[in-house]
Amino acid sequence: MLSACGGSNDASNPSSSISSASGNSTPLVALSSSAYTTAPASTALVTIYRTGDSTGAASVSYTTVNGSAVAGTDYTATSGTVSWSEGETAIKTVSVPVSSLAAGKQFAVALTSVAGQANFGSPTSATVAVAVAGSGSGGSGGAAMIPSAKQIVDSALNVWTVVGGVVFENGAAAAYSANVGLLLYYGGTIYQESKSCLWWSWSGNAWAASSNPDPSITPACGAAAASSTTTSTVTPSGDFGIQVKGDRFVSAADGSTVQIVGTNISGLETGRDWRWAAFANAGVAFWSKVLNYGGQHVNTVRLPLNEASWLNYTCYDSGTGAAGQLYSAAAGGGYTPDPAGVYQATVRKAVADATAAGLYVILDLHWGSPNNPAGEPLCPIGQPSYADADHSLAFWKSLADTFKGNPAVMFELFNEPFGSNVYGNWVNGASGPGPDAITLRDGGAFSPLLQQNNAAGDVMHSVSMSWQVAGMQDMINTIRAEGATNVILSSPIGWAGEIETWLAARPSDPIGQLGVAWHLYGYNKGQAAPLAVLAASFPIAITETYGLGAIGGYGWAASHGIGYTWWGWNDWGGQQLSAELAMAPWYNSTAP
User: Fold this and answer.
1) Domains (ranges, CATH) in the chain?
2) Which residues in 482-496 are b (16+ Cβ under 10 Å) and which e?
3) DSSP tag of 585
4) What's the pLDDT tens digit per position in 409-461?
5) Beta pairing, strands 444-446 & 432-433
6) CA–CA–CA angle 525, 526, 527 (5° rounding)
7) pTM above 0.85?
8) Rounded distance, CA 69 to CA 41, Å?
């Protein structure tokens, strides 16, 4: 069985002309599917096809990417190049040896570069899921379906796939049906079921109207085949909210795909409490104006937060004098982040009003700071290198308990982790996670304390001290322990930019509601890394950007379900939230 996404074309005529995926003149190379299955202790076969104008030679390079399956233990790391000579269009096969230890796990294969007379088609990355030992695959001639497959091999060893609504047999288009829902091999015959609940069987050269060959093993019409490698058990609730399903964000109300499009609104992350009143006073009326602002499909707002303001503990200056510029003086030489006791109520009201207006809300831990060696909390004065174990876990425990009843709220664990701020500690070799990335996931002792000084133009300030990092895993565990099922977003190291390290250093979520928070400010990391993340069934939200030209533009992101929120709505050049829409949003870029 195979699930496929398609357009709105009528499936009542599956033998109509072939789509542009196989019939146009543009030379393209791509994987034959976005997901494959294989058995443990076997060889996974991943196929690559060339379509369109075959004039001239072409080649494409590929590589395996770790998921829950790890190279060297679960499978053999494989990379290389396949080539076509002029006029050649044969399918190329990549073989990846898989061990018995890989049962129930997955890895990815990604196309990394193309040369010659061809461009990338779609997909360029795929998940390879290894079946649980003894479960059976139901593929070769049997009467069962393959419940998580994106590929079916019949008893004659023909490879059947669906790409963009087109059914392929050994890489050649068999027929067109843009809303195909299931592909089934049963009793020696290939069947397809459309999302309109119509069945067709393959007669050898065309599709013929048919009926369900075995209703006892086929899901109810319209049911999607399982294709996600997450462990999510969340189902549509009918409430306004957002969830993770495979590599997409979906509506909690009806399960439809949601592409996050939004903006950051700054002010709640700083200690300057005069900025908070605008959020308390905005009301549903303001947030309703943000929704779909300017016809740009805006559906999300990201609110950066400050852990000291939320927890309201007395804090102390780290030697810069910035605390006195950001917070109110308290007895004993300390400072009070929220002297009027209004911060939590302000955040709660802003979230309630924004979600009532129909916006999803991302709450982001933006500013924080650990205790000094004397056990005194240091005042957050800007972005630190990591979340801290002294306060960040308490922050997320309280925040999760506060918003666990609102499924429209997403939790972004930590804004821009940068560790030692040294690239060689972020990335090991070409794309492996360096020690800073491992600390980001696992936490532990770290030195020194690095933090931006927002009161001095965000210059970096270093405090020579050892402190405890709160790892991403610890924060997820804290949130889930409160019973919160909200979507969680986890950032990669390198100011949230080194997405190529995320898969190998990612935390885990027991309920499968985890996505990636990526920041993109013109730093070109290429398309292979984000595609590998998607192939591993994790969605991506670019939660800060001023434009997506570095990875192919807004259209490329949208085609892969990648969300994005601009930084930002307000630039604090005399503009305030209370001025409502008199300010110019997207001040660093032009919205798409």
Assistant:
1) 20-132 (2.60.40.2030), 137-227 (no CATH), 258-514 (3.20.20)
2) bebbbbbbbbbbbbb
3) S
4) 999 999 999 999 999 999 998 778 999 999 999 999 999 999 999 999 899 99
5) unpaired
6) 130
7) no
8) 13
